[in-house]
Amino acid sequence: MAIQWGSWASGSSYTQSRVGIDVVRSGGTVTARFYDASNAPVTGDSRTLSRTGGSTSYSVTYGSGGGTTFIESVNYSIAAGASLTISASVSGVFNGAAPSVSVSVSRPFDAPAAPGTPSVARSSDTRQVVSWSRNATTAAPYSSQRVQRRDFTGSWGSWREIASVSSSATSYTDNGTVADRAYQYRVRAVNSTSSATSGQSDTVYTTPAAPSGLVASKSGTGDVILSWTNNARVSGYETRVIYRYEDGAWSDEIAVASGVSTYTFTGADPTRRIEFHVRARTTDGSNLYSGYAASGWVQLQTPPDPPSGLSPSGGAGDATEAVGLSWTHVPADTSPQRQFELRHRESGGSWVTVGPVAGGSPSWSLPADSYSNGAIVQWQVRTWGDHEDPSSWSATATFTMSARPTVVISAPDGGVVETSSAELSFAYYQAEGKPQAAYRWSLDPGGSGTVSGSGSSRTLAGLTDGRSYTVTVEVQSSAGLWSAPESVSFAVEYAAPPPAVLEVEFVRESGAAVITISTPSGTPAAESVTLERRVNGRDWHTVTEGLAPNVTVVDPVPSIRGVTEYRAVTVSPLPSTGTGPVAVLEVAEPGWVFVNCGPGWESVRRFWGNPRLSARASRPRALQAFAGRTDLVEMSGDRQDLEVTVSGVLTPDSSTVEEMEELGLTPGEVMYRAPDGRRVIGSIGEVSTGWMDRHRSSVSFTVTRVRREP
């Protein structure tokens, strides 16, 4: 390094002197070179250098301008991590000057040596003890040590520091491990100069995850095929299979290689029930075992249990038609149905046996005319699997032979319908006098439905002029049999009244729509008008009917966000109908909440102030446990609950506190309309109000839905 000079020193003359040191360190040796300097001529001046560790005499001569003279070189020792200060001064200068200088030198510690490769002792899945040896020296000490770990969860993760321990530590207990992992450790030594990392430890394993979903099924050759799902994330494991026969001891374990999820068990006794378990085991010598997955019992060959699910059972069939009989094969050994035998009889008579019939189909058709209508028929079935013996006979199923009912449509008669509605009339007949239980109808194009009871007529409304329709009717007897469908086609031709034209205006103060209906004259004349509404693209429904052809009406509950459409249907005395053009009302009322109540929703409350809205929807549910199932089963009810919670601010242009409190005391349903477009017909709960300042009050309440809007 460069010479470090002390300050210029002056004596009794203008001549100045100074002393300097040039320091070089190599390992533990510091070489100091001492220098004298003057800024003016000096001749034969004898001087003494006093420096750390000794002194020396020397003489200097400088020409004009002065100069520099090397005095001597001295070696000093310095320990690692230490500092050394070298001082020097000069005496004997001719003019009495006494220059001096000091220089400090530091030697850092040497880089640390890496700790020894750690070893790991497993205490449990959540506790591993890591041990290592230190290689610190005086010249290369440790200031701290960092324990690092990486995890295997299908692949090795990155090294990460899990602890910082003291420089003298030689072990660390890791309490942050979990099951179904593999771990490796290493230790990094640190000092002020550098760091060094040990080699990685051997892999330590925790208990592997248990297999799941073990299924044992028979092969066609009498073997048992096992399959399961391996859930262990570590690779150092194998699967162990054990088995036992009923009333027998468990076998020795059978090893299956890592990653394999099937095993074929051969040589099973076909006459005995057998079950299997599988579990995972580590292969690093730690012999850690997971829990077992169980297959349940497997019967290679045994007769089936009696068939179940016989159908029909309690129903009816027409004796003039083939009646399909079906059942469920119930194997005790998982083997499919190979053949069946069936028997049937009229109640109290002798059995007629069919079969055995080869095949796996769990069904058979009783031929037409096997019995007479009015007879009560009993039947049983038994099945075979792979075992040579059949199941026991099933429980007896019973059904009644009964003639299908018939239906005749008397109106419409297939001619032309000259009105916008037609009366559907039909007649029911059943040969044994069984009463009508229901009927179902359909109109194409149009609607359909099923009606319980003995009804024999209905009105087909909304027929369109110039279109053709087909109406179809089926009837059901009390025995449960439906008739063949009866259909009649007819055309519709009528003179429609002139369509009405609508004008719609939104009244912001009440959230209502004012609709002006204008109907021109024509033939046939419009006798009355029906007003229909559709909200945000949903179904049309009637607002009011029987209106005068030219009138202004109020709809108190249009949507306050989105699109409300209106149309008028004019009705003539024929009757016939004409549908007018759609009038559109599009509204966006941010911040306003409207609540209507009373007959026809005529009474309204509203408030402003960025209302806070929340909704809670639910349906009744219960969790049930059933024998033979490992998991719970959810049972859901039909009821669907919706509750809306509302809070906001009453302002001078809102409803008053008294009006809101009156709403809470008024019986009956309310129509709640929110600025997000939500519409709920429900029951209002307690209405709470509170004073905020001289101009504002708070309001809050809940609305629980009681029915859906039509």
From TrEMBL:
GO terms for molecular function: hydrolase activity, acting on glycosyl bonds. One of its GO terms (biological process) is polysaccharide catabolic process. InterPro entries: FN3_dom, FN3_sf, Ig-like_fold, Striated_Muscle_Regulatory. Residues 120-135 have a biased composition (Polar residues). Residues 114-209, 210-305 form the Fibronectin type-III domain. PANTHER family: IG-LIKE DOMAIN-CONTAINING PROTEIN, TITIN. This is Fibronectin type-III domain-containing protein. It comes from Serinibacter salmoneus.
